[in-house]
Amino acid sequence: MLRICKHCNMSFDISDKPKGWMANHSRWCDRNVKKHEYKNGSMLAVASMNAKRKETGVTNQYTKAKIEGTPIPKSHMKGRVGHFLGKTHSDETKLKQKNKALASPHRRLRRKMIEYNGIMLDSTWELELAKRLDSLGISWIRPEPIKWIDDKNIEHNYFADFYLKDYNIYLDPKNPYSIKSQKEKLKCLLTQYKNIIIIETLEDCKNFSL
C-alpha cells in the first residue's frame, strides 16, 4: 500500500508500518512549513503540564527530580526507555554485541509480516515480487546474510530479500525513502557485489524479468 507525502512528495510503502505512521511522517516532515509550529506547541504543552504539576504538587518521582534538580531515582528509571542515558557500553561489550550480530543468520523481524506459501515476507512489494518469480518459474529462497564492509572498514551483515539460485542473483526491493536513507550502504554493497539488483518500484516488482 503506497502513500505519498504531500510535503516532500516521496512515496512510502506503509503496508508494514504501524497505524498512523504516514500521518506522523507528514506532521514532522522536514518540508512541512508548520513543523516548527508543532514542535513549539509540543514544548509549550510539556512546559505547561510540568508547571501545573509543580503548582498542584501532583508529581511523580521523575518530575519531582527534574524540578528540584536532584538525581532521578533508579527505581523510577528501571526498565524504562532511556534508563541507560549517561552510560556507555565498554569496548569489550561492544565487540561481543558486534560479533553476536555478525554471527546471527536471522534478519530483523518487522511488526507486520506477510505469509506466502509458508514463507514470511516483509512487505507487499516482496509479496508481488515473489508471485512474479513463481509465475515465471524462477526458483528463489530467502538467503543467508552476506558480509559487506562500509567506508570505515567495519563489517556488517546484509540481508537480501531474494536469492535466485540458478542465476546467482540477489534481489532487494526498496522504496525511494529506503534508497535515499541507505545511500552510502548501497554504494558500498553494489561496489562489492555485482550480483545484487535493487528494485525501486512496486510496478517493477510486479513485472520483473531477467
Question: What's the topology here?
Answer:
Layout: E1 2-4, E2 11-13, H1 21-28, H2 35-56, H3 61-68, H4 74-77, H5 91-103, E3 114-116, E4 119-121, H6 124-135, E5 146-149, E6 155-158, E7 162-164, E8 169-173, H7 176-181, H8 183-192, E9 196-199, H9 202-206
Parallel strand pairs: 8-9
Antiparallel strand pairs: 1-2, 3-4, 5-6, 7-8
Describe this structure as you would to a colleague.
The longest helix has 22 residues. This protein starts with a strand and ends with a helix. A hairpin with a 6-residue loop joins β1 and β2. The protein has nine helices and nine strands. It has two domains: 76 residues, no CATH class; 105 residues, no CATH class. The relative contact order is 0.10. With 210 residues, it is an alpha+beta fold. The strands form four sheets. The chain has a three-stranded mixed beta sheet with strand order 7-8-9. Strands 1-2 form a two-stranded antiparallel ribbon. The mean pLDDT is 80.
Main sheet: strand order: 7-8-9
What coarse outline follows from CA principal-axis ratios? extended
Q: What is the CA–CA distance across the termini? A: 25 Å
The counted number of beta strands is 9
Tally of helical segments: 9
What portion of residues is helical? 40-55%
Low-confidence stretches: none
Order of helices and strands: EEHHHHHEEHEEEEHHEH
Instruction: List the domain count as a whole number.
Output: 2
- Taken as a percent bin, the fraction of beta residues is 15-25%
Alpha carbon gyration radius: 23 Å
- What is the mean predicted local confidence, pLDDT? 80
Q: Please identify the structural class as seen in this structure.
A: alpha+beta
Instruction: Outline the biggest β-sheet.
Output: 3 strands, mixed
